[in-house]
Amino acid sequence: KERVNNMEGKKIQDYMNDIDEEFLQSERLITKNGLNNLSKKNKKAGLKTILLIMFFICIWIFTYIASNKNTIFLAQSVGNVSARYVERAPIIEYENKQEELNEEELFMKKNTIIAKGRVKNVRNIRIKFNNEMIYRAVAEIEITQSYRGNCKSGELISVLIPCTIHIGLDALEHEVISNLRVGMNGIFMMEKYDQHSYIEEEGTILYLEDLAEYGFIDAHKYGFLENKGQLIFDRYTFKSIEKATKLDEVESYIKKMIE
Fold first, then answer.
1. Integer distance in angstroms from the first to the last C-alpha of the chain?
2. Which residue of 20, 87, 89, 160 pairs with 212 in a disulfide if CB–CB is 3.0 to 4.6 A?
3. pLDDT per position as a tens digit, 99-142
């Protein structure tokens, strides 16, 4: 009888063990499914958060680029000075403060870089210098021939213009460089900027190299432009070729003057 009772007890114990094992397996399954569901929810929430962050980062980058795409980086300049390209600029007539030189002196006293080229781009710029707003323009010129200096054929150079450029205005021979337009061919007399080319006032220094590689000394005498069959230059100063109508005539004249 005792043996029978022991056997029955063992069966009950085994049965209970089976129930416990099944219960534990069920618990594990439920817990695992719950964690999986929770993990999926967390993954979805995390992915949404990441996408949202990326979206705002993209908006910030786009806004930053859009607001700074016209900013000119002034690597050397110091103080209260900044510059940027502008779509609109006031009409600035150049005020000539240079000494009056005759045509021979223009070639001898001013050791300018002289080259022939084609205008590829022109943009007005606004310079904030201390509390003053200064408007100028920068042209990109592709060199086709060099007469004096280190410019090479095919080279694209930037040139600072001492006035603003306005498309649609009539040609002004008294202000030659203001007539510069994209697509024009011309012969240009420019100065090469270096560390000594700067404007300084009250501790603020603008290095002109930050704006362009070269610059025109004034807006009148240092360019010969060909536009739709018309030759634009300062005929009053260059009396030797005042009746010239072709850029080739100017080219021959310049070669003779710098021999």
1. 137
2. 160
3. 678 888 888 888 899 999 999 999 999 999 998 999 999 999 99
Q: What is the pTM of this model?
A: 0.72
Beta bridge partners of residue 125, listed in sequence order: 85, 136
User: Tokens in use for 177?
Assistant: 């460089």
3-state helix, strand, coil in the chain (%, to 5): 35, 30, 35
Enter the tokens of residue 153: 């054929």
Separation between Cα atoms, residue 187 and residue 223, nearest integer Å: 6
H/E segment holding residue 7 = helix 2-68
242 alpha carbon, distance to own chain's centre: 39
Q: How far is CA 122 from CA 67, 158, 200, in A?
A: 21, 9, 26
Kind plus residue range of the DSSP H or E element containing 117: strand 113-129
Beta bridge partners of 204: 201
C-alpha angle 189-190-193 in degrees, rounded to nearest 5: 165
Task: Report DSSP state, residue 182.
Answer: T
Q: Which tops the pLDDT comparison, 58 or 62?
A: 58
Q: Name the more confident of 31 and 255.
A: 255
Instruction: Report residue 47 CA to chain centroid gap.
Output: 36
- pLDDT averaged over every residue in the chain: 81
Contacts 24+ apart (CB under 8 A), 6-11: none
Q: Which two tokens stand for residue 172?
A: 């002004």
- Report the distance separating Cα 258 and Cα 254, nearest Å: 6
Q: How far is CA 221 from the centre of its chain?
A: 29
